[in-house]
Amino acid sequence: MGKKEKKDKKDKPLDRMTAKELREAALKIPEITGVHGMNKTELLTSIKKARGIVDEKTAKSDVSIRQIKEKIRTFKGQKAEAYENEDKVKAVILKRRINRLKKRTRRAA
Asked: How many other CB atoms sit within 10 Å of the CB of residue 25?
């Protein structure tokens, strides 16, 4: 059984590599210069550019955030009404819903 075999660094995706591993990979590519002065993001972009990998950026949709915030506003109004009517159970439920929606907007941002 002996020593464990190390996995090839080629199996590891570029985004998961450390800066040291990216430098080693970049040194093998002759088109890239100044490898030791680059940080991780610069190394990633230069390696992807040299290999011809297109970086697909996901667009954050402002529409969904706006819709969520509109729901939050309506729930806040309903919560205020519930407190005025002394319906604490409904107010607590609405408070939880508002809290969850706020968390969702933070994740989407």
From this structure: 20
Domain ranges of the chain: 14-51, 62-108
CA separation for the pair 81, 54 (Å, rounded): 52
Q: How many residues does the chain have?
A: 109
Please give the Cα distance from 14 to 12 (Å, whole number): 6
C-alpha pair distances (Å), 58 with each of 7, 48, 55, 64: 30, 17, 10, 14
User: What pLDDT digit, counting tens, does each position of 59-71 carry?
Assistant: 555 668 889 999 9
Query: Which tokens belong to 21?
Result: 């591993």
Extract long-range pairs of 79-83: CB within 8 Å, 24+ residues apart.
none
Q: Are 23 and 35 in contact (CB under 8 A)?
A: yes
Write down the pTM of the prediction: 0.45
| Greatest Cα pair distance in the chain | 73
